[in-house]
Design brief:
621 residues; Alpha-Beta Plaits; 44% helix; 8-stranded mixed sheet; 6-stranded parallel sheet; 3 domains; 20 strands; CHASE2 domain-containing protein; alpha/beta; transmembrane
């Protein structure tokens, strides 16, 4: 039985199941969060389509407004404007209006006890009743009714008015003027019977009955189409009454003939509602507008393209689930680019579809897609960070900090070819350590070497060097790669100086512990070397090879011969400006190499800027 791939398949299946669970959860959360986002997006698309893709309407509503100017010219308050309503009804009816809608509630009482000072013979009740009776034979009437929350029913109107209006069989003369607002108080949806905001769940509204009188009847549902038609400009009620008093029937007929007429208040502080777009031409840019405009736009929608129909929640859920599948896309940059492109496509597509009367709310899909893309990207980034931290902890003892940094950043990888670079190579070795270690236990040897290397490698790293390898009690390092340095040679000499200072500190500790002191030799040479990964695909290391490395190794072996703890080549001395503390020792042949001019240095006797010392410096054993 071959079980070699079972574990991998199991992990993949588990990862797929967890991914599907995460995608489903993101889709569900997006469906919950989407309505607020979709509402604002719908408003923006209504405004965008109105501005850039205007859709004129063939059958519009004539809006007659009761404004401040009219109320300033009359003696009676709005609730007692019976005679003016009667005059308006007669004027619009005589001019051929098909239906007159009043976004006004008729009074509950007759007001028989009220007398007009200017016209004592005026009977408020009889005047309005006569106007209703005179209008109904020629023109359909639809009047608003409102819900009385205290009594739990629609507010009654005076019985005589109700009896007259009841004679109109079709359309229903009294219809609800209630709106259903969203959570942000904006009126977007038509208040169909399925909404709990209509107390009696009646299918009859002020706008639906006006449309029915115009011959358009349906079970209206959906969103009021705020993208069609131009801004409303009302005809002042006072102007209509003046035209009628002047007998200008031709002008009135040109306005009202075969039209739907809607009368309501257009004052700046009365009966205001929040709309998705600014419809009032006299209040540009203001979305809190007279409620009569919402009725007028609803009638516009019914008489022209109909209500905007939102797609089903099931389709929105499917779109959200598809968007959440972005969790599975592995490439972060490509995934985010694709998400951006799909976002533009979804927004453009929903705006275009909205023009044809459908609202494919993209909020759930967009939120799910971006939540999946960003959360997966964040998760991958966290995993990469954790992996880098693990690698750093695992390999920090095997490579120098600069090499580790280059590996973590991706600048170094095993597949890259070696590069020839100018470096300064340093070799160090403990003098006579082999003989010393023969008198020590193995654990003591390892402990001593670890203490020694911990101190001197820190000095190499302090000056930007790279520790290449440890060779028994010896060490190879180089300066100038992978991180470039202004002067690799100066960094190498300073590291050698500090290495010897650290050795002196370690010797003081060893002396207190009863151990003999250690002596060290350091060789430095500068020149080109090939830097890169050397080895097989299974086992390789980041190292330097070339003649420069060989020469540095040979120079380290000459420290004891010349009695200096540091021996460097002429190449190093020349590149640091031949300071006085580097003492020339002449040219000397090296094993397997031509003669090289060398310099000796004992940091205890001189440093940068110090005077030249005699060549008989004490030898470190």
């Amino acid at each position: 039985m071959d079980l070699s791939g079972g574990g991998g398949r199991g992990r993949r299946n588990t990862g797929m199941a967890l991914g599907l669970l995460a995608a489903t959860a993101l889709a569900a959360l997006s469906m919950l969060a989407a309505p607020v986002f979709d509402a604002r997006l719908l408003d923006a698309q209504f405004e965008f389509n109105r501005q850039y893709f205007p859709q004129p309407v063939a059958n519009d509503v004539v809006l007659v407004g009761i404004d401040e100017a009219f109320l300033d010219t009359v003696d009676e308050p709005l609730s007692l404007s019976h005679r003016y309503l009667a005059e308006f009804l007669g004027a619009a009816s005589d001019a051929g209006a098909t239906v007159i809608g009043l976004d006004l509630v008729l009074p509950e009482k007759r007001f028989d006890t009220l007398v007009s000072v200017r016209n004592p013979e005026l009977d408020f009740h009889r005047t309005l009743l006569t106007g209703l009776l005179r209008t109904l034979p020629k023109t359909k009437l639809v009047l608003a009714k409102v819900w009385d929350f205290q009594r739990g029913h629609y507010r009654d109107i005076q019985i005589d008015y109700a009896a007259v209006l009841a004679s109109q069989q079709e359309p229903q003369a009294l219809a609800s003027a209630l709106f259903c607002s969203d959570d942000d108080t904006r009126v977007r949806r038509y208040p169909d019977p399925g909404w709990n905001c209509l107390p009696d769940r009646s299918p009859h509204t002020l706008s639906s009955e006006i449309a029915a009188a115009m011959g358009v009847r349906s079970e209206w549902r959906g969103l009021i189409n705020y993208q069609i038609g131009a801004e409303f400009h009302y005809l002042p009620l006072g102007e209509v009454l003046q035209l009628a008093r002047d007998g200008n029937t031709e002008r009135l007929r040109s306005i009202f003939d075969k039209r739907a007429v809607l009368l309501g208040t257009v004052q700046d502080d009365t009966d205001l509602v929040n709309l998705p777009v600014a419809l009032a031409g006299w209040r540009p840019g203001v979305k809190r507008q007279p409620g009569v405009l919402a009725h007028a736009q609803a009638v516009r929608s019914m008489l022209n393209q109909g209500m905007v129909q939102p797609v089903s929640p099931g389709l929105q859920g499917l779109m959200a689930l598809l968007g959440a599948l972005f969790w599975f896309h592995p490439a972060v940059a490509r995934k985010l680019l694709l998400a951006a492109m799909l976002s533009v496509a979804l927004l453009a597509g929903s705006a275009l579809w909205l023009q044809s009367g459908w609202w494919a709310a993209p909020g759930a899909a967009l939120l799910a897609m971006w939540a999946a893309a960003l959360s997966r990207s964040a998760w991958q980034a966290w995993r990469n960070f954790r992996e880098k931290q693990r690698l750093r902890r695992s390999f920090s003892g095997y490579v120098s900090p600069h090499v580790m940094q280059q590996i973590m950043s991706g600048d170094l990888d095993a597949g890259r070819r070696g590069v020839k670079t100018e470096v300064c190579v340093l070799f160090s070795d403990i003098r006579n350590f082999t003989a010393m270690s023969e008198r020590m236990e193995a654990e003591q040897v390892v402990s001593l070497l670890n203490r020694y290397f911990a101190r001197i490698t820190a000095m190499v790293h302090r000056h930007g060097g790279t520790v290449d390898k440890f060779i028994g009690d010896g060490m190879m390092a180089f300066f100038g790669a992978p991180n470039p340095l202004p002067s690799p040679e100066k960094a190498g000499l300073e590291a050698a100086r500090d290495m010897l200072a650290e050795l002196a500190e370690l010797n003081r500790e060893l002396e207190q512990e009863g151990w003999p002191p250690l002596a060290m030799g350091i060789g430095l040479h500068s020149g080109p070397a090939v830097i890169g990964y050397i080895g097989s695909s299974d086992r390789h290391e980041y190292t330097a090879i070339g003649d420069t490395v060989n020469v540095a190794s040979r120079l380290e072996g000459m420290c004891k011969q010349f009695g200096y703890p540091v021996i460097c080549s002429d190449a190093v001395a020349q590149r640091v400006g031949l300071p006085d503390f580097l003492l020339p020792q002449g040219e000397h042949p090296l094993k397997g190499h031509s003669a090289v001019a060398i310099y000796g240095w004992n940091p205890e006797l001189g440093d940068y800027g110090a005077a030249r010392h005699a060549t008989d410096a004490p030898v470190q054993e």
